[in-house]
Amino acid sequence: MTYKVHELFSLKGKVALVTGGAGYLGAEISNTIAELGGNVIIASRNYQKCEEKCKELRSMYPNSEFKVMELDLTSKTSIKNLFNSINKLDILVNNAWSGNKNSFETITDDDWEYDIEISLNSVFRMVKCSYPLLKESKGVILNIASMYGHVAPDYRIYDSKELTNPPSYGAAKAGVIQLTKYLASFLSKDGIRVNAISPGPFPHPATQENKLFMERLSAKNPLNRIGQPYEIKGVVALLCSDASSYITGQNICVDGGWTIW
Predict the structure, then answer these.
(1) How far, in Å, CA of 145 to CA of 202, rounded?
(2) Helix axes 122-137, 167-186, angle to 10 degrees
(3) If pLDDT is split at 50, 70 and 90, which confidence band does 40 have?
(4) Where are the alpha helices (DSSP H) in the chain?
(5) Least confident of 51-60, 66-75, 94-103
(6) Which pLDDT band, with edges at 50, 70 and 90, does 163 fall under?
(7) 204-233 mean pLDDT
(8) First vs last Cα of the chain: how many Å apart?
(9) Distance CA 256, CA 30 (A)
(10) Region 96-104: what's the mean pLDDT?
(11) What pLDDT score does 193 carry?
């Protein structure tokens, strides 16, 4: 059977759940799925921000459906309640993150446990609860990891607590990459594909105001610049669609080459 490229990338009629789908990179993930014809559920603790994003998407893509659902990833009950309210799911994107900036010296036990809970434990729980729906649809899971799941931050470019990357973040993201491979193996019998993306330096606009820090980040990168949010869209389109129907258990770095050095 022969498929045209645009047919492989189509998400028409598919339902995707994107955690943190109104955030800096999350918004571009939601945009990508919507552009390909998919219906999007955006889940977050920030209901108002998600509703604003859904309103924007509804105006741009009136033939698709967009819904907001409240979700606290630190609450097992909240996660269970979310899936009790969903009757169809084709794509799960585990993207949401929140945490405190910390160095090794400043991080506390509570900080560490919170970061692991948000970045790693929540991915396990989201997959566990979504499994029956994804098994039925032979769906797709996309986990958002990080370049710091592969390599350590260079301490020389992080000269303040406000800029540094906490040890908990990379540890959790490395766990997400391994969990992705594990799930790809054990869920393959159900026709579920599982992949990950490891974004590189995509600093938030507020961080970009620090020009010296931006120079340091850029100098660490073969492409000599930071990433722009739209640059994650291509790989999201690939891994969420049938264009990647023979790809599972993989992690694609979208990092300007950061992790090759």
Answers:
(1) 13
(2) 20
(3) very high
(4) 5-9, 26-35, 47-60, 76-84, 109-116, 122-137, 167-186, 205-208, 211-219, 233-240
(5) 94-103
(6) confident
(7) 96
(8) 41
(9) 22
(10) 88
(11) 99
What tokens does 68 get? 């907001």
Q: Examine the pLDDT at 216 and tell me if it is beyond 80.
A: yes
177-to-57, 105, 148, 170, 223 alpha-carbon distances in Å: 30, 26, 11, 11, 24
Range with the poorest average pLDDT among 77-86, 98-107, 182-191: 98-107
Q: Which residue, chain included where needed, has tokens 């108002």? A: 48
* Amino acid in position 206: A
pTM of the model: 0.97
| CA–CA dist 169, 184 (Å, integer) | 23
Burial class (CB in 10 A: 0-12, 13-18, 19+), 48: exposed
Long-range contacts at 104-113 (CB < 8 A, ≥ 24 apart): 104/167, 106/161, 107/166, 107/167, 107/168, 111/166, 111/168, 112/166, 112/167, 112/168
- Length of the chain in residues, anyone? 261
- The set of residues, in sequence order, having a beta carbon less than 8 Å from that of 173 and lying 6+ positions away, is 119, 120, 145, 146, 148, 149, 198
Segment 116-132 shows an average pLDDT of 97
Q: Among 146-150, 154-158, 224-228, whose mean pLDDT is lowest?
A: 154-158
Question: One-letter amino acid identity for 120?
Answer: L
CB 50 within 8 A of CB 26: no
